[in-house]
């Protein structure tokens, strides 16, 4: 990885049908710390903040790895909005699945 | 021979020790189940983070998240994870013995976690340089520890490892080695599509910053994992010690009960003998 030059263009993922809830595409979300699962389930989107600024992750997002800064994670779920306050976290997005490792 | 009342009193006190050790044994057994469950849950978390780290890591050498211009202290820091108090069996004694074998005042500084270990170390005439209480809560903030570790060229951690309910071992590992070996990918070709590279991932702010952040995170998680492992081994050791104490006190109480019965029987026999002798004497007197 160290020898590769950063590329502007990123490879696109093969089109896959995202899971849907009431006709809206969803993404699997898991927010957890070593001893606690804050949220695990489907969601329409996840909003967070990193060093660059606030951003949203929607279904079909490209593979993504980033550090989050202290913020409120907002998850739009079929049951409404869930807000999780985090101090430090790592976000990993892959194949319509978002994992947020809290307190790492 | 002791008087039966004395033996009875001693037996009563031993019986209360049986009740106490039995209660502590039950408590330890509950703690083991709770701690073991937590360790298993946390291991899943650690494994997932490790899996990302070993794919992204840039350097095979782990440098504790230090920058090039930082000059570390040319000593090895010994980190001891011990229990917060007594009643933890012999596990801390074994750990201290192992540390004493390795310790060299000129080459080592000592960081102790846990009050019991600090006391035992003092008894072995070794002064610790840093001290922290063993965290009680689930969330362990190891940042102050990391700041100290980062100042040293090498760090060796002594911790207690849970093997089974009856077996706990003392382990010592070089922190840099353990992080490097865990982060090493055995065979890159096995990673396949899962590989985290700049071709397949977007990194923010960039891949190097994420890798550097992960290196710190991994050190933080490694230390936390050792603390959780030690906690489990400590409660298991306490359970073992309490079980042994309970067994011993039950044996003592049984022996004392037998002794009490024997003393009482002997007392009755003596009285009976005295009465018989008196009766004989009376009869002999009446015959005259």
Which tags fit this structure?
heterodimer; A: about 100 residues; mainly beta; ATP Synthase, domain 1; 5-stranded mixed sheet; 4-stranded antiparallel sheet; 11 strands; globular; B: about 290 residues; alpha/beta; 6 helices; 6 strands; elongated
What would your notes on this structure say?
- The complex is a heterodimer of chains A (104) and B (288).
- In chain A, 0% of the residues lie in helices and 58% in strands.
- By secondary structure, chain A is an all-beta fold.
- Chain A has one domain (20-102): F0F1 ATP synthase delta/epsilon subunit, N-terminal (ATP Synthase, domain 1).
- In chain A, the strands form three sheets. Chain A has a five-stranded mixed sheet with strand order 4-3-11-10-7, with no helix packed on it.
- Chain A starts with 19 loop residues before the first strand and ends with a strand.
- Chain B is of the alpha/beta class.
- Chain B contains six helices and six strands.
- A five-stranded mixed sheet of chain B has the order 3-2-1-4-5.
- Chain B starts with a helix and ends with a helix.
- The mean pLDDT of chain B is 86.
- The chains are: A mainly beta (104), B alpha/beta (288).
- Chain A binds chain B through residues 1-2, 4-7, 10-11, 32-36, 50-52, 62-67, 90, 92, 99, 101, 103-104, and chain B through 38, 41-42, 45-46, 48-49, 52, 55-59, 138-139, 196-207, 209-211, 213-214, 217, 220-221, 224, 228.
- Strand 7 (64-68) of chain A pairs parallel with strand 6 of chain B, so a sheet runs across the interface.
Question: How helical, in percent, are the residues of chain B?
Answer: 55-70%
* Largest interface, C-beta within 8 A: A-B, 28 and 37 residues
Strands in their spatial order, largest beta sheet of chain A? 4-3-11-10-7
Total count of helical runs of at least 4 residues of chain B:
6
Radius of gyration of chain B, whole Å: 30 Å
Main beta sheet of chain A, described? Answer: 5 strands, mixed
β-strand amount of chain A? over 45%
Described by its quaternary structure, the protein is heterodimer
Order of helices and strands of chain B: HEHEHEHEEHEH
Low-confidence stretches of chain B: none
């Amino acid at each position: 990885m160290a020898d590769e030059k950063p590329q502007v263009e990123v490879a696109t993922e093969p089109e896959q049908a995202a899971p849907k809830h009431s006709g809206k595409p969803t993404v699997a979300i898991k927010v957890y710390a070593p001893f606690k699962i804050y949220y695990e389930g489907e969601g329409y989107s996840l909003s967070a903040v990193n060093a660059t600024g606030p951003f949203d992750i929607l279904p079909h997002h490209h593979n993504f790895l980033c550090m989050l800064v202290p913020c409120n994670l907002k998850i739009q779920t079929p049951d409404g909005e869930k807000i999780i306050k985090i101090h430090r976290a790592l976000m990993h997005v892959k194949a319509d699945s978002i994992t947020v490792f809290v307190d790492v | 021979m002791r008087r039966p009342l004395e033996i009875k009193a001693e037996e009563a006190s031993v019986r209360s020790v049986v009740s106490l050790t039995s209660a502590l044994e039950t408590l330890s057994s509950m703690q083991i189940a709770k701690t073991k469950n937590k360790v298993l849950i946390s291991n899943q978390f650690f494994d997932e983070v490790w899996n990302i780290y070993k794919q992204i890591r840039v350097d095979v050498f782990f440098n504790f998240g230090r920058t090039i211009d930082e000059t570390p202290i040319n000593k090895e820091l010994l980190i001891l994870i011990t229990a917060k108090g007594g009643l933890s069996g012999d596990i801390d004694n074994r750990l201290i013995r192992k540390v004493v074998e390795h310790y060299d005042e000129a080459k080592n500084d000592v960081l102790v976690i846990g009050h019991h270990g600090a006391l035992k170390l003092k008894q072995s005439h070794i002064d610790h340089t840093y001290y922290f209480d063993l965290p009680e809560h689930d969330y362990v903030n190891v940042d102050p520890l990391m700041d100290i570790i980062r100042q040293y060229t090498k760090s060796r951690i002594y911790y207690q490892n849970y093997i089974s309910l009856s077996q706990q071992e003392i382990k010592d590992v070089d922190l840099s080695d353990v992080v490097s070996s865990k982060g090493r990918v055995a065979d890159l070709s096995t990673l396949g599509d899962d590989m985290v590279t700049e071709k397949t991932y977007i990194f923010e702010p960039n891949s190097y910053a994420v890798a550097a952040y992960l290196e710190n995170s991994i050190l933080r998680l490694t230390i936390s994992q050792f603390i959780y492992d030690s906690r489990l081994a400590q409660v298991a050791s306490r359970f073992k010690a309490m079980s042994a104490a309970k067994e011993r006190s039950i044996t003592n109480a049984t022996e004392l009960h037998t002794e009490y019965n024997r003393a009482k029987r002997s007392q009755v026999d003596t009285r009976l003998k005295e009465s018989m002798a008196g009766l004989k004497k009376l009869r002999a007197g009446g015959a005259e």
